[in-house]
Specification:
Low-confidence stretches: 1-19, 57-63
Distance between the termini: 53 Å
Structural class: alpha+beta
Oligomer: single chain
Number of helices: 7
Shape: flat
Largest sheet: 4 strands, antiparallel
Number of strands: 6
Radius of gyration: 22 Å
Strand content: 5-15%
Mean pLDDT: 77
Strand order of the largest sheet: 4-5-1-6
Order of helices and strands: HEHHEEHEEHEHH
């Protein structure tokens, strides 16, 4: 059967996506490694040079990271697409705040191509609750025995204090506004516990 060229191209792209899985490309991690590796593409280095600003811990250089902003994320996204075979990558979402990166569908060829350049996509996994929870979860939600083979959360967490021992917390994040107390920065030795990496804010959420 003969197809018009345009339709054949669409069918090939569809076949590539049918074998693709969803991945996260963390530009923060790529940029952090850029100073230690020469494998990264020049297009990435150009975007970082043109857009990156220092962000993170105040009052000291330790823990700082380079942020490229929304424009930089858009440019890195396009640069990434240009690095892989046509039709092997589809951008699903872009992240500009807590972390900078993209969620993508990638084929195996695209993954291999990116890894060869020092860019490692992370598989985006879904977390689900089993109908038969493990003993540990079942034990956490009740004080009396026997266990009921269920996990329930009758409370909303009001009045609970959560202590996050991590890279800090982004105090300006809309989800935490007015709810963050004092912290301590063990890197710079001060009480400014701003997030210097993004991981702490992610865990706090």
């Amino acid at each position: 059967m003969r197809y018009p060229r345009l339709r054949l191209s669409a069918l090939l792209a569809l076949a590539a996506y049918s074998r693709a899985e969803r991945y996260i490309i963390d530009f923060d991690a790529v940029i952090a490694a850029e100073a230690d590796t020469t494998r990264l593409p020049r297009a990435f280095q150009s975007v970082v040079a043109a857009n990156a600003v220092e962000s993170g811990a105040r009052g000291g250089s330790k823990g700082r990271r380079r942020k490229v902003g929304a424009r930089g994320v858009d440019e890195l996204s396009k640069a990434t697409e240009n690095l892989v075979p046509q039709g092997s990558m589809r951008v699903l979402r872009k992240f500009h705040s807590v972390t900078e990166g993209i969620a993508v569908d990638l084929s195996e060829d695209a993954i291999a191509q990116l890894k060869s350049m020092g860019i490692t996509p992370e598989l985006d996994t879904k977390v689900t609750m089993s109908a038969h929870p493990p003993w540990g979860l079942d034990r956490l939600d009740q004080s009396d025995l026997p266990l009921d083979a269920r996990v329930t959360f009758p409370n909303d967490g009001a009045g609970t204090d959560v202590y996050v021992i991590d890279t800090g917390v982004n105090v300006a994040h809309v989800d935490f506004a007015g709810r963050i107390g004092e912290g301590f920065d063990f890197v710079d030795g001060d009480d400014v516990a701003d997030d210097c990496n993004g991981h702490g804010t992610h865990c706090a959420g």
